[in-house]
Task: structure prediction
Amino acid sequence: MKINQNTVLQGQRVTLVPYTSAHVPRYHEWMQSEELQRLTASEPLSLEQEYEMQRSWRDDADKCTFIVLDTERWSGQACADEDCMVGDVNLFLTDTEDPTLGEIEIMIAEPSYRGRGFGKEATLMMMSYGVRNLGITKFEAKIGQENEASICMFKKLHFKEVAVNSVFQEVTLRLDVSDQERRWLLEQTNHVEEKSYAELKLPAGVLET
Result:
């Protein structure tokens, strides 16, 4: 999705940046992990396939993705994005009958960053972005039954379990964004600053085409 190709969302723990080709080698390295393949129900790809996937994420109108960075390490400009990467967060807008429904995914790929609130803040920031910029009014999350930490986190964010698929061993959680939920969500993310990626990081302010 090109709407966020120049968007940086800077929070307390995490900063969200658009997924560019510079992030692909590190992402590809993560996805060699059998644990991450299992947790994300992903097949291993070649590096070239991963570059193709990155281009589709950028260009397809029904996918929105941000790479999750460690704000403390990144904001000092001391390290490049790829050295501060901790995961990614995605929104799929794939229900053609309901464009206000977004399926949300979060992956904290770096084990040392799990259980420290990075996934929670990244998810809240993506949800807020979806509500404010993409017209989302309903969120779904589909999570493997064994991923108890992720299921627990989404329930803390007011999601309710609505279905269990025993064949795929997957739980579906849902949140309808009422006026009250919208207010809560925007309160949880009122510290987030939106900035221009080109001005902050890319040389000579050049965006990928």
